[in-house]
Amino acid sequence: MATDITADLYIIAAGKGTRMGNKLPKALIPFNGEPCLTHTLKNIGQHFRNVFVVINEDIQDVWDRYKSEISLSSHPFSMNVQFIPIKSGLGDGHATLMALEKAPAIATLSPEIVVCWGDVYFHQPEIITELLSMKMSSNGIVPALLEQNPYVTLLVDDTLNCMSADFSKYGEQHPSGFHDQSVFRLKYDVTVAALSRLHKAFWKNGRYATPGGELSLLYIFHYLYNLECPVTVYETSHSTKSFNTDTEVKLIREEILNDK
């Protein structure tokens, strides 16, 4: 059932998939015979007024083929899907900022947005209805699960306001903690302002002075917490499945087969 909230969805799929040795971006890796992105559009897209898919302009031919495959004749999605090509490779925060800055020229803006990664399989799409039903009492809401050795750990205070995010790939490891489920409900204007400020602060000599040389969307959590307008974490009753390796892709495919 579609929500009454007039939010826009931004799917960040601007990578090339090179770290996994693929010829396809991770969002187009197939699950159960269809690209991951197609499952996302089918499973959660109907809850949004507009869906923006952020893609890498360097592989426009790959995306042109995909767009032809999801023509209305073959995939009658019940939402307005638009593709935003950007110059990629500077992190998901940079990709999000570029998309949000381009969006005003494409469609009327919603006061709220939902951002999710292209490399996530929504095997429990109820997480979206749950997320959109939550009261928006802060500048953002993030569903998370308590996990062992999380890939990303959201550090929260006693009221579940997010103080910052630690990344295991940069050595910021925790034995357990809240792990975001790769989907974020945020206020549009606050997100643009925060990412713009961080871009200006970290951009030095043609690159970001950050671990990995990238701007992460999750960096805004610490920034907003310091401004006393934090993003809130809640423990979800659903989950998503993100993947960064061929092994994780294989496990998701096996789970899909077992669920049939």
Rg (CA only): 17 Å
Beta-strand share of residues: 25-35%
Helix percentage: 25-40%
Order of helices and strands: EEEHEHEHEEHEEEEEHEEHEEH
Keywords:
single chain; 8-stranded mixed β-sheet; 7 helices; 16 strands; 260 residues; alpha/beta; Spore Coat Polysaccharide Biosynthesis Protein SpsA, Chain A; globular
How do the strands and helices of this protein lay out in sequence?
Layout: E1 8-13, E2 30-31, E3 34-35, H1 36-44, E4 50-56, H2 60-69, E5 80-86, H3 92-102, E6 112-117, E7 120-121, H4 126-133, E8 140-148, E9 152-156, E10 162-167, E11 176-180, E12 183-187, H5 188-202, E13 203-204, E14 207-208, H6 219-226, E15 232-235, E16 241-242, H7 246-259
Parallel strand pairs: 1-4, 1-6, 4-5, 8-15
Antiparallel strand pairs: 2-3, 6-12, 7-16, 8-11, 8-12, 9-10, 13-14
Helix pairs in contact: 3-5, 5-6
Task: Characterize this entry briefly.
The protein is α/β, with parallel strands linked by helices. Helices cover 29% and strands 28% of the residues.
